[in-house]
Amino acid sequence: MPITKTTTRPDVNARRVINGADADVIQLHPMKHTFAWDAYNAGNANHWLPTEITMMSDIEQLRNGRLTEDEIKALKTVLGFFTTADSIAANNVVLAMYKHISSPECRMYLLRQAYEEAIHTHAYQYIVESLGLDGGEIFNMYREVDGIYSKADFILSFNEGIFDPEFKTGTFENDQKFLENLCVFSLILEGIFFYSSFAVMFGFQRQNKMVGAAEQIQYIMRDETQHLNFGIKLINTIKEEQPELWTPEFQQHIVDLVRQAAELEYKFAAEVFPRGIFGMNAEGFRQYIEHIADRRLQRVGLPPQFNVENPFPWMSEAIDLTKEKNFFETRVTEYQTGGTLNWD
Ligand code: FE
After folding, report:
1. Domain boundaries, the chain
2. CATH number at 69-322
3. DSSP string of 162-226, one letter each residue
């Protein structure tokens, strides 16, 4: 689109998460959505690469038969879910969200987020390769394993309208469609669908098993927590900027989707861990999923549906630990250009 030559500066208060002025997307300053800039800086401060984490003890444990059949199956299946989820997330950021987000500071964060999704996929690739697992098997699980297929199919069904090259925000119907995609992507994909798999990986960690893979998943969870926080900010800011979109029917629709998602996540957990794992059984998973689903709803101002206690309180410790852990003690601190990073 052509730009107009002018000395008139845009009004920062007119900036919008969606449906802002076209010319505005090029001009980072002055900022309105400072939460996005803060998130961008936090993402940079948390930078990590999978190859900085040694997989030696994981490799030895697997070789020496320290994992049971059930544990190997659980490890593979959560990897199978993760590989798919982060690729879907990357595509959604780049192909569905970026184009329609009209705030340059929000776009800055999306660029950082897109790279983090790539790092996550890299982590799974690195784990699969280090452990000598069959990459074709793991990366194709979303087509083969019911519990993963159902979750991927659910998420992808919300991309259909948004991925259409003709799709544009600016009408009530399309703006709601965009907001629906954002709610599904942030609250459900990033906010619910990762969490029973996170719980399994921290289950391994608590047994001192697969600690290299688990450490990577810990960094991934830290990134995902930021993605979720940013997504929630976007949703709440769009609600403020265009309150007409947040109708009672729309709110009920989002609540219904979160309830459906909680059911899908429970079915996934029950399929993957039919006999339970590390002391977590099907009922525990159900309650944990319901607990986090309520928390996601509340953060966008929707009523909790399940009102259950957190049966895995150590999960919040795993999250807190990631914040407190001195990351720099265990990693190579300088990024080299034109060379590889080595452990010594
Ligand atoms: Fe993400």
Report:
1. 69-322
2. 1.10.620.20
3. HHSTT--S-SHHHHHHHHHHHHIIIIIIIIIITHHHHHHHHHHHHTT-SHHHHHHHHHHHHHHHH
Note if the bond before 248 is cis, omega within 30 degrees.
no
Distance (Å, whole) CA 92 – CA 86 = 10
Q: Residue 19: which residues within 8 A CB-CB, separation 6 or more?
A: 102, 169, 170, 175, 242
| Ligand 1 center–CA 156 separation, angstroms | 15
Model-level pTM? 0.90
Is 40 labeled as catalytic in the residue annotation?
Answer: no
Query: pLDDT per residue over 239-275, tens digit each?
Result: 999 999 999 999 999 999 999 999 999 999 988 888 8
Angle (CA) 311-314-320 rounded to 5° is 130
CB atoms within 5 A of ion ligand 1 belong to: 89, 190, 227
Q: What are phi and psi of 101, to 5 degrees?
A: -85, 120
- 337: CA distance to ligand 1 center in Å? 26
Segment 176-226, tens digit of pLDDT = 999 999 999 999 999 999 998 999 999 999 999 999 999 999 999 999 999
